[in-house]
Every structure is written in C-alpha cells, then in structure tokens.
Fold this sequence. Notes:
alpha/beta, six-stranded mixed β-sheet, five-stranded mixed β-sheet, globular
Amino acid sequence: MKELGLKYGCNPNQKPSRIYMEEGELPLEVLNGRPGYINFLDALNSWQLVKEMKAATGLPSAASFKHVSPAGAAVGLPLSDTLKKIYFVDDLPELSPIACAYARARGADRMSSYGDFVALSDTCDAVTALLLKREVSDGVIAPGYTPEALDILRAKRKGTYNVIQIDPNYVPEPVERKQVFGITFEQGRNEIRLDDPSLFANIPTANKTFPEEARRDLIISLITLKYTQSNSVCYVKDGQAIGIGAGQQSRIHCTRLAGNKADIWWLRQHPRVMNLPFIEGIRRADRDNTIDVYISDDYDDVLREGTWQQFFTTRPEPLTREEKKAWIAQNKDVSLGSDAFFPFGDNIERAHKSGVAYIAQAGGSVRDDHVIATCDKYGIAMAFTDVRLFHH
C-alpha cells in the first residue's frame, strides 16, 4: 500500500488528509481501527523511541505518547510489589518483559497517559494486551501481535481500537522533509547514537563515578528526549522515565515540571497513598485523578465534607507539606538528562530536591562554571555530552 487516506488532519476542518510514500510501500499495516493524523504522528515518533531504546539497552521497551511527546518510556525490568500496586497491575498474571515495560511507561504519569498511543519494541503478547484492554488508550504500534493478543485488542472500544503493525526492518531515507506555511524544510535525520561511551568522556564535576545502572538510565533519558518536544528534560530511575518536562520555553520550567512529576511518582509510593480507602467500583480515571489531587496542595477538593464520600469509605487524613517533603527526600539515585545545556545552577538546585545524583547534558553555557559548582555542592556526577537533542 502506497498511501492511506485519513478522516482529517490535526483538526476536523483540515481536509483532505493522508499519509503516503513518495517511493515504495508504506512500512506499516492497520490491523484494526482507523487511526487519525495525530495517531500516526504519535505512533511513528514513539516507534522510533522504543526501537532505539531496545537497541541501546538490549531490553524490551515501551512508550506512552500524548500529543507527539512521551508521557512515559521504560524498559522491561521486573516490577517490585510496590510498583505493581501503584501501577494497578498486581491482579494480572505474571507479566512478560514487554508487559513490564508498558506497565512502567503507563504508570509513571497516569494523568498524562490517559488516552495515550502506545509503542512496543517487541511482539505484543496476551498479557500486554490485557493490560492495554482496560486502560483508556487510542491505539498501539508494534512489530507484531500474537493471535490471542490481536483478538483481545480487536474487541477493545467496541472493535474500533487502533492496532498498527510496523515492519521492524524499515529504514527511512537519510533526509527528511516537512512543510510549514507552504515552505518545505529539509534536514538530515537525527541518527546520532546515544549509547556511545564517548558521551560520558567529559565529566567536569568532582564526582566522576557513574554506576552501570546510572549510565543505562541516562541513556534512556537521552533517547526519550530525542523524541520529546523541546525544550525538554527527563528524570529516570530504575529503567523508566519518572518525570518528563516537554515543550517549555524556559529550561528551569522544564526542570520544575518534570521534577514535580517525579515527586508525584514517588509520593504515590507513600504508605498512606497506597492504602487510600477507595470505595468499591471507583472508575480507574476517577481513582487516578483523586490520588493526584490528594497528593497536591489542593487536597481539600477531594477531602471536604460532602465530597470525600464520593471516593472513600472513610475520610483519609491529608499528607502535610512536612510529611511530603520528608518522603520526597528519601528518593535517591535519580538520573537526569537535558536536551540542551543548563544555563544556570538553579536547574541543579531543583533537580537535587527530587533525588538527582547523575546528570547528562550538552554543556556549553557561559555559566557552565556555576552549574558545575552547584553539582559539586551536592556531590552530583555530571557529564557534558556535547550533543543537543532538540525535537520539533
């Protein structure tokens, strides 16, 4: 198939719309549903991310995309009992590595992942399809599907769930083009390898030690940033993104946004949050939103009299700011990547509050000395990669 007509473009008024190949056949097949313009943007960007992450780490990888940026990305490391509980997969049978990857990618920021498009580096199996079946999601792209998984996914959303199969051996042309306002832009594809050991050759901080797990997490961070709308930063821990700040004009705002998401991910593991007394049968989206509000400074929105009864069997006590600060302080060994240099040390100050111990960033700011000194103040190891990863 050389082209595929779409219902409309980014918005219903933007017609006609299609995807097509100038030469050759489309490297993908729609197995179910009718994906739209934004679905394909998410699918093709997320597929590149997981394919590259699998190649760099050797581990099955998954991504949860919304509006052409990842809400989560992860490799398929086993889940602890705590993570199984906060990702709400503790009731499923034994999870395969690819299922673990998606549980991590979806679970990192469940509010942002609502209605996501999913990418899987490996064949989608039945347990991953079961995980997908119960989440609010627009579709999935993968190199293959087991017959049982395909049956499960084809039954989702009254048979309209979008299922795309892509040729894993497809390699695009080295030059890419797009149009803006009738003008064609052309550039070489960003083929830089982010698992190259030379990225960690320039370490200007006093602490020059990067354990293997930290290097892996920094590589995951950089690959995630390669497919995230700029400006962007990404916090990673134990093989998964735990906070992504995308599309901000100011880098410190990226760092704060992503850091706040990382803090929420960690707060969800607080014993009081894990044991919130939800009413039976609460919808998954309502539960996720309630947790998010309960953790925030606006907790009274779900705890006030006449409201808490909609969510809880008994009214839980809120976490005080002091309790939240003390819990967040226990998060350690977080890795942080940035798609360009940090201009000031304020980014490091904010990152430190969320447990960052390892950083990879481009370097090249006129205030690199201030950034290095701030890292040294906290014993953070930082590498200057000399690589910018802007994505638009």
